[in-house]
Design goal:
The complex is a heterotrimer. By secondary structure, chain A is mostly helical. Chain A has one domain: ABC transporter involved in vitamin B12 uptake, BtuC (Orthogonal Bundle). Chain A starts with a helix and ends in a 12-residue tail after the last helix. Chain B is globular and about 55 Å long. Chain C folds into 2 domains: 189 residues, 3-Layer(aba) Sandwich (Rossmann fold); 160 residues, 3-Layer(aba) Sandwich (Rossmann fold). A 7-stranded mixed β-sheet of chain C has the order 7-6-8-9-10-13-14, sandwiched between helices. In chain C, strand 6, helix 6 and strand 7 form a beta-alpha-beta unit. In chain C, helix 2 packs parallel to helix 12, helix 3 packs parallel to helix 4 and helix 12 packs across helix 13. The termini of chain C are far apart. Classes of the chains: A mainly alpha, B mainly alpha, C alpha/beta. Chains B and C meet through helix 1, helix 2, helix 12 and helix 14 of B and helix 1, helix 3 and helix 4 of C.
Chain lengths: 292, 304, 398
């Protein structure tokens, strides 16, 4: 029982931190129709920026939280600049240009990160207020990972709330459904795109900063996470917030369950789930059917 | 016009065939590698340039062809002249199978699905240790003695790639090629005109996959080894960059792209390790300033 | 258009031709040594330091009058951590730089790929850090030599440590790729010899590119083993150790034996206080052990290069490969490939960490393993290996 509980929490906390990154990827696609390969790069940059900040201001006395906020901010600004100066010019062009544009960002920033921080593995310690383990009655569990679960759930509910209850949310939902309608309603479409791209990147940056203590910073983490995020959104459905949520949770749990039942073939299991979804619902569990 | 082109093509091939006279092994290796990627990139362009389908998993077929040929040669000791066609048949069947699932979707969904299948192929290659050697790869993929020197292998590659390019050229300029472009321009209208769009796209997908497999088989023979990395999505991205850099709206664009990318990366790496960054800048310049690639640039200049 | 593009194609071919023949024309006095290390990509951390060691030893040899009185010219190319790039780096070294000998490689895949090129081109290759046993068994050939330890030695030495700790029930946490599977083979074989009663009760196999080890950590904690053998190498150990510690893993599992060099200075410093005290870990080299003249001289050079009093351990790999090669050429008296092969077989050479012997049968050096128990230090602000044990390779190479 204890074992099952802990493995469930392992899968949940991993899945929820994956969700932070995949959610932005999915929403950006929903609104901008851009499949952002650089989303993993934003995540990675977030981690390195947090590392840099922590090495200057320290971890304690809220230093870690300032670092996380800073990562989100820097990424939001960076993404806004990228959208305004470059990406904007590619809307309406063949999708291969947008794909390769975001891929060029992956290449560019991987070299920028290498130039600034080198290639060695870097890590941040757990913030002092969240180190150690929490007694859950059934089992002890690391506080930091419980916190990651909480963040994932709060973000999911927060984004959902924004979508349902605010003007901006309605605009974004409308944009996901039908892009032509936006211009007709007299909405400043370029601004919507800018804000969505920027917010998605900020979410990825925060995800990277929060993952830094639990994982580690190293070259190649950008392309690793982006493949996982693609799997998540393929399963959940491109453009769907709850799809990304369900996809992330499924991937997280599948790893824990797979390890128990088919330890040797656990990676393949993830791909098989993906193929199974694609075979029956090519547009993902909660995605909307193409062309509608 | 086709006659002068044909003549020019024959001229280039003829000149290339003289390369071994230089006596430089380095040049043989470099040219062989370029030729293989010329074929790989051109095969991808059948999908992108003609069918308008952006595959992000084309390396899967490169790897299937490579592993297929290597396994038949090495494990089952089948002679090359049988092993290579057999590997192609295998690649064709798998391309058709995967393609039949992929062409149900278009646009980004197609790109993601191909990426996913590419990764699945990678995972299978990586895990199926008894057959593929896992991440140790397959080594000692020996060519028969008549092509086991760099020069003779180069000539062999030149011959195979020339024939394959000719075949692809015929495909691109056949009714099939024109139908693909019609679908690309307007899928709905092509549908009205009685074109079975999915079936046509599937044929294109299979052809593209098979020729990528041929390139992969050559690559395994060329390196005398093959590793799972050849199926990894970054390999798919690299060949996609070749296509766009060279120009996807031209049959010969990807050829120029493959040559430019390989030669440029060699020269750059003599000076700096920051090749990925430089490539990113070149790519951005291409996307914003000459979207039709080098071929488009040359065409524009030629008209002036 | 295509006319023009074809012309430019011809132009580029011509440039390549001139470049290649130009390079080919150089045939001179110096002995040319090519090195292929990952200088970019995820393995670059290790590769750059190995390349530094390579550069150091080349400079030292040249300062001392070269090999056979001839200067040494060195060429380094980027193998990028992937076999295909390693193949082309090795080919360029041989055909463009006209290297007479090649050294290097970091990952197992790179080692196998470079070794394959060496066989084709009939050039001697000295593997500096790839450890996979595949290179000296199924894929062995006469041009391949190895100054790195092999996976049998590493796994076997871990079995010796485990046996000395008296562990009977063991869990393994090895990465699910060749290196992990090869390590287990070496570990199992020697464990059976040492203690037939000891058994492996749980095996977990994290994939090479996972960043979250928690499901595996939980799985092992759920097992009743008392000792754990891991092969989570180099920088990968950093996230693993932090995740495991947050679960109280190292308190519950009394004995932890970590292969894959997590005991190296680089990793110990990166982990800082998060480096678990009391575990056993290995390293390519330890700057405070052994206290011999050759080793101290090496460390002095390294400290000067890096301006760092506590030098990293990876440069030794590149350094020793060239030491072995130079000794082989000196012994052969010329640079003829077959003569150098003959000389290297059975050769004992003086390395920075003491004498090493390359055996004839599979060209494997008897490179032992430095193991140590992680302990707090009074002197430094990082943890150290105390005690350090050097486990000889001679009985555990097979």
């Amino acid at each position: 029982m204890m074992y099952a509980t802990i493995q469930f929490l392992n899968g949940l906390s991993y899945g929820l931190s994956l969700f932070l990154v995949a959610a932005g990827l999915s929403i950006i696609f929903g609104v901008l129709r851009v499949l952002n390969f650089a989303h993993g790069t934003f995540y990675m940059l977030g981690g390195y920026i947090a590392y840099e900040a922590v090495s200057h201001i320290g971890l304690s006395d809220g230093g870690f939280w300032i670092a996380v906020a800073l990562s989100g901010l820097v990424l939001a600004v960076l993404a806004a600049i990228i959208e305004r100066l470059m990406l904007r010019k590619l809307y309406g062009r063949d999708e291969v240009y947008q794909l390769l544009f975001t891929f060029a960002l992956v290449l560019l920033f991987s070299d920028v990160i290498r130039g600034l921080w080198g290639t060695q593995v870097l890590s941040i310690s757990f913030p002092p207020e969240l180190s150690g383990a929490q007694d859950l009655g059934l089992a002890y569990y690391p506080r930091y990972r419980l916190f990651l679960c909480l963040v994932g759930i709060v973000v999911a509910i927060g984004v959902w709330f924004v979508f349902q209850r605010t003007r901006w949310g309605r605009i974004i939902r409308a944009a996901t459904q039908d892009r032509e309608i936006l211009g007709a309603l007299g909405i400043n479409v370029p601004l919507v795109y800018l804000v969505v791209f920027s917010a998605g990147a900020a979410l990825a940056g925060i995800g990277g900063a929060l993952a830094a203590p639990a994982l580690a910073l190293k070259p190649g983490m950008d392309t690793e996470i982006i493949v996982e995020c693609f799997i998540v959104v393929i399963i959940g459905g491109l453009g769907s917030l709850w799809g990304a949520f369900i996809g992330a949770i499924l991937i997280g749990q599948l790893r824990s369950i797979g390890l128990y039942f088919v330890p040797e073939w656990e990676i393949v299991l993830v791909y098989l789930l993906m193929i199974a979804v694609l075979a029956f619902r090519p547009w993902g569990l909660l995605g909307k059917r193409e062309g509608e | 016009m086709p006659h002068s082109r044909l003549l020019l093509g024959a001229g280039i091939v003829g000149l290339l065939a003289l390369l071994p006279l230089s006596g430089s092994t380095y040049l043989m290796y470099l040219s062989t590698q370029v030729l293989i990627f010329v074929l790989f990139a051109t095969s991808l362009n059948i999908l992108i340039g003609y069918a308008g389908l952006v595959s992000f998993g084309h390396a899967a077929f490169f790897a299937i062809g490579g592993y297929g040929c290597a396994i038949l040669l090495r494990t089952y000791e089948i002679p090359l002249l049988l092993a290579m066609p057999a590997a192609l048949v295998m690649t064709a069947i798998l391309s058709a199978l995967i393609g039949s699932l992929c062409v149900r979707l278009t646009s980004y969904y197609f790109s993601m699905l191909t990426l996913a299948f590419g990764q699945l192929i990678w995972a299978v290659v990586f895990k199926w240790r008894s057959m593929t050697g896992g991440d140790d790869g397959l080594l000692r993929v020996d060519s028969p003695s008549w092509i086991d020197t760099p020069a003779s292998f180069f000539i062999f590659t030149l011959l195979v790639v020339t024939l394959a390019m000719l075949a692809l050229w015929i495909v691109a300029h056949s009714p099939l090629g024109r139908t693909l472009m019609a679908i690309r321009e307007n899928q709905v209208r092509a549908g009205f005109l009685g074109v079975h769009t999915r079936r046509v796209q599937l044929v294109a997908f299979t052809i593209a996959g098979t020729f990528a497999g041929l390139a992969g088989a050559l690559f395994a023979l060329f390196n005398r080894s093959i590793f799972p990395d050849s199926a990894w999505w970054l390999q798919s991205a690299e060949v996609l960059i070749m296509v766009v850099l060279g120009g996807m709206n031209s049959f010969f664009g990807p050829m120029v792209g493959a040559l430019t990318l390989i030669v440029l990366s060699r020269f750059t790496l003599e000076v700096t390790d920051y090749w990925p960054g430089l490539l990113a800048i070149i790519l951005l310049a291409t996307l914003f300033f000459f979207p039709n690639g080098i071929a488009g640039l040359l065409k524009a200049k030629g008209k002036r | 258009m295509s006319m023009k593009s074809k012309l430019s194609l011809l132009g580029m071919t011509a440039i390549a031709l001139v470049m290649a023949t130009g390079a080919h024309a150089q045939e001179g006095e110096p002995i040319r040594i090519g090195a292929a290390y990952p200088l970019t990509g995820p393995a670059a951390t290790n590769g750059l330091l190995a390349a530094l060691g390579h550069e150091m030893i080349i400079d030292k040899i040249n300062a001392e009058g070269g090999i056979l009185g001839r200067p040494v010219e060195s060429f380094t190319r980027d193998s990028k951590g992937t076999p295909a790039d390693a193949t082309s780096a090795a080919r360029d070294l041989i055909t463009l730089d006209n290297a007479d000998f090649i050294v290097g490689g970091f990952t197992s895949g790179e080692g196998l790929a470079i070794s394959e090129v060496a066989l084709q081109e009939e050039v001697i290759y000295i593997a500096a850090s790839p450890k996979t046993i595949q290179m000296s068994e199924d894929n062995f050939h006469k041009y391949m030599f190895r100054t790195a330890a092999n996976t049998n030695t590493e796994g076997g030495s871990a079995a010796i440590i485990m046996n000395d700790l008296g562990v009977k029930r063991i869990c393994t946490m090895l990465l699910d790729y060749s290196y992990g599977h090869d390590l287990l083979k070496g570990f199992k074989a020697h464990l059976e010899e040492l203690d037939p009663e000891a058994e492996i009760v749980t095996e977990v196999w994290p994939a090479l590119n996972v960043s979250d080890y928690t499901p595996y950590i939980t799985e092992v904690m759920n097992s009743d083993c008392t000792g754990v053998f891991s092969g989570i190498w180099g920088g990968l150990f950093v996230p693993f150790a932090k995740q495991a510690a947050s679960f109280g893993f190292f308190d519950q599992k009394e004995h932890f034996v970590a292969a894959g060099e997590p005991g190296s200075q680089e990793i110990i410093e990166e982990l800082g206080d998060d480096m678990p005290t009391g575990i056993w870990a290995n390293s390519y080299e330890v700057w405070y052990y052994p206290d011999t003249e050759a080793h101290n001289k090496y460390l002095e050079e390294l400290r000067q290069r890096l301006d760092n009093p506590y030098p990293p351990s990876w440069p030794i790999t590149g350094y020793m490969a060239v030491q072995a090669l130079a000794a082989g050429i000196e012994a052969a008296g010329n640079t003829d490939t077959d003569a150098v092969i003959d000389a290297l077989e059975g050769l004992t050479y003086e390395s920075a960490i003491g004498p090493q012997t390359i055996r004839e049968s599979d060209h494997q050096a008897n490179r032992g393993q430095y193991w140590g128990q992680i302990a707090e230090s009074d002197e430094y602000n990082f943890k150290i290996l105390d005690p350090v044990r050097y486990i000889e390779a001679d009985d555990i190479m097979d």
